[in-house]
Design goal:
Mean pLDDT: 92
Structural class: alpha/beta
CATH architecture of the largest domain: Alpha-Beta Complex
Low-confidence stretches: 217-225
Order of helices and strands: EHEHEHEEHEEEHEHHEHHHH
Helix content: 25-40%
CATH superfamily of the largest domain: Spore Coat Polysaccharide Biosynthesis Protein SpsA, Chain A
Number of strands: 10
Oligomer: single chain
Number of helices: 11
CATH topology of the largest domain: Spore Coat Polysaccharide Biosynthesis Protein SpsA, Chain A
Largest sheet: 10 strands, mixed
Strand content: 15-25%
Shape: globular
CATH class of the largest domain: Alpha Beta
């Protein structure tokens, strides 16, 4: 049995060579009006000044800070490590190149506690909006009024909400749904969120609390690549359950769900999974609706695969 949480919130920052932007997180946390939190930094093998910067924060912080360093193993391993080590009731990922407003943690915790206690066990998360550095909302607002209770799949494909969002999950729930460690490379975060969707709801709130900077192209931690081939295996593992869940919303968002299915075919063709594994992800584990979509979008997925193949023909798999 797990011990009682020591803090309300664990703020988790995965980082890889972001010494130039990590001070944004540090300054944001120093400014927080809510103080019942810890900061957990997981360094995925940075080769810049990130370790020295983290050591300085450990000495100067007026709140608990813990720093973990791992060999380069991608964000999924950093996430699993953070979930094991976190001491909060909920865990909130704050990327190493972003900020949040001074009352962000206070407002997130308030929204969580605003869910009636008798209903709270049915919920895993609170998710809010992001704004850019000029104060403009990034992406779409959630439907309804101040808030809506839903799941990530329904929000994306039934309500067609797109763009950066931000929020936390209950730590006890995250410990039940970890990223696979037997898949090499990048695995989409949807792998975990879709599993959680099957059991819990999220409260989506139309309040912008995270400041999203548009000056960074790459992921905050290693794993993403413009060439889809090196990450194809993990992408298939992560996309398969999302497609299974999203297929039911095809008539609400035919373009979005169709694009997801075609991209799944593209990734499946790039992957080096065994034939049995490919059949399991594309057929055995899929709903009848997802199977039909895979068949219908297969020509588009094949065309995208061939485009990738000839574009990156001179490169080798890593």
């Amino acid at each position: 049995m797990s011990s009682a949480p020591e803090f309300s919130i664990t703020v988790f920052t995965p980082v890889y060579n972001r010494a130039s932007t990590l001070p944004r997180v540090w300054e944001s946390l120093l400014a927080q009006t809510f103080r019942d939190f810890e900061w957990l930094i997981v360094d995925d093998g940075s080769t810049d000044e990130t370790p020295e910067l983290a050591a300085r924060y450990l000495q100067q912080a007026p709140f608990p800070v813990r720093y973990f360093r791992q060999e380069n193993q991608h964000k999924k391993v950093a996430h699993n490590l953070a979930v094991r080590e976190a001491r909060g009731a909920v865990m909130l990922a704050l990327d190493s190149d972003d900020r949040c407003v001074p009352n962000a943690l206070e407002r997130l915790w308030w929204h969580w506690n605003n869910i009636p206690e008798a209903e709270r066990e049915q919920f895993s998360a609170v998710t809010v909006l992001c704004q850019d550095e000029d104060g403009q909302i990034v992406g779409d607002r959630f439907p309804g009024g101040e808030w809506i209770d839903s799941t990530s799949t329904e929000i994306t494909y039934r309500h067609r909400v797109r763009g950066e969002k931000w929020g936390f999950h209950r730590l006890d729930v995250l410990r039940r749904f970890s990223f696979p460690t037997n898949v090499k490379g990048y695995v989409p975060e949807s792998y975990v969120w879709v599993q959680i969707d099957r059991h819990y709801k999220t409260r989506y709130v139309n309040e912008a609390l995270r400041i999203y900077y548009r000056d960074q192209y790459d992921s905050q931690i290693t794993g993403m690549t413009r060439d889809p081939r090196p990450a194809a295996n993990g992408a298939v593992v992560g996309t398969a359950p999302e497609l299974c869940a999203a297929a039911r919303y095809f008539f609400s968002d035919p373009k979005g769900v169709g694009k997801l299915a075609a991209n799944f075919v593209r990734l499946l063709l790039h992957s080096t999974l065994t034939l049995g594994e490919k059949l399991r992800f594309a057929w055995t584990d899929q709903s009848w609706a997802a199977r039909l979509l895979i068949l219908l979008t297969a020509p588009i997925g094949l065309a995208a695969f061939l485009r990738d193949y000839f574009r990156h023909a001179g490169k080798h798999r890593s």
